[in-house]
Amino acid sequence: MVILCFGVYLVAGREVLADTNLVNKQSWVVDGTDDTNANAANISMSVNGHAAGSFSKLVLSYDVGGSGVVTVCTMTGAGEIRMALPPPGEFGGSFFLTSYWDCNAGFIPGMTFTDLDIRQKGGNKGLLEFKGKISNQVSMASKGFTMTFLPPQTDSFRAELKYSLLATTDFCVDQATHTNSDDFQVARMTSNYIDPNVQQNDETRFVKIVSKTCFFYGCVTKTKTYCTNLVNQDEFLIEDPPRLGGGTVWLMHTQPLPQATPSLLLRFSSPGKSRIRPQGLVAASADTNAQNVSFWGDWIDARASYRNKKRIGKFSYTLEVDSPKALSCDFDF
User: pTM to 2 decimals?
Assistant: First the structure.
């Protein structure tokens, strides 16, 4: 049997040859298409439990204000998530899921999407939910991944993620990178910074506890906000990274120039803020398309080794993009 769907042939084996519409109901539209990057990986898709084909890229659009659908997010099978605000906002940096440094194999990139089912919740203008499986194809996987997109607003757009990771083989976490809080990244953001005139984001931001005094009835905690202006040179952004004093790390865009690319935020729920250290890295580059800036939350409690089929941890956090604007800072690193 061959079905013609928006000019695309869908065969009985469910292999999809080009763009296919997966969801077009109420305010959300989801299309499956091809990722043209060299590391493209397919996602086995279903909609409400019904097989819908295999794609290496998903394009999410939303009808903002009833004026017609606009693209607000792309997801690749390789694990890259890019989110944008409705116009005049633009796409900027990217989000990636959990990754780590292996003591034998080096850096193991973030989790890839392998199987996803799409469901809409909450009726018109409701939530868009993806449930399924993720894997880094090497050592970790989850069969209970959930990612829920909330309706985009004019100045913010976010997605909530939850998953538990299991080891799929024996592996070890490189303790040599622990000092710089670059051994087990719960999630990370990447972006471009070449100079003030060529950049998507220009500052990192996080909250640090500066004092904590405890009494028999509780504790009094004082926090300060720390920021780092990006420069195009090889460096870790934070020396002796502290534990987070607030659950959010920001990769800021402090002004809507040279383009109105958004600020990127990671809000950590599990592990909690006291179990996360912020860290970032810049790789000097002259490539205006390079994602040469990374900023992430590193998991303090990651163990030195894990055994096959054993639980690694439960992870819950929010990805968010906000309109570019300057926020106050108490100190600069």
Answer: 0.92
